[in-house]
Write a structure and sequence with these properties.
Helices cover 79% and strands 0% of the residues. The protein is mostly helical and 262 residues long.
Length: 262
Amino acid sequence: MSFLRLLSSEWLKTKRTAIRLMMIITPISYSLLMVWYFSHYHTIMFLETKIYEAFFEVMTVSLPIIISLLTGLMAYQEEKAGSFMNILTGPVSKMKSYIGKLTLLIFLAGADILLATLLMLLGMKYVLKVAPIHEHVFLQGAALSIVGSLFLFSLHLFISFAFGMGAAIAVGSGGFLIAALLGATSLGDHIWMYVPWTWAVRLSQLPLLSMPEIKQAVGELLLHSYSLSLREGTAYALLSFLIATVIGSIWFQRWEGNKPHE
């Protein structure tokens, strides 16, 4: 089976499930909520930077819970469909099935983040009347949000199949708190690169420094420092994702559908 057919098969499995509903409702409702909030914002100075900071901070802090729900629902759907028999006895190897599920989850989440960003840009232009708008900065933030959350997809997909949906949501809730405390505040300034739940939050904020008003304020030395942080943070995120995916694939290939409590 080709990889595209595998992805198509995994996508069909989400038909009439909460996964598709989440994928449609979440980006639309989130962007509308942010546009509504800033439509009542009375300070217009640096409005674009304030929108950028709030939009990506709230979204990336929430990603651990959203990812845990997606992976948990996917595992629950497989268990409900026949106690994982489609995976264990199907024509596709378990390793390919794992990679297919992981790829689909990342693609869906990436599409949602991009959709929410585009809707936010439209709201800024036609509702909030923000001008000029640095669209490329917002798109960079969206891309880094995805990169920073890659490891969490591998982690939560493993937890969902190994321990169940409840465990995945519990870890996701803990990740939400960590992201809020260490990612969105100064508490994590010196350790965020070593805490996976903060990567999406911190990386998504770095493009903000390329906006002209911020660039002039912080100076070249600080810009260079943040450039190094961007490279290091991205390297940690990608390397950890690759390692977690390899380990997860090997585990999934040996997995027999049982959980520790069974």
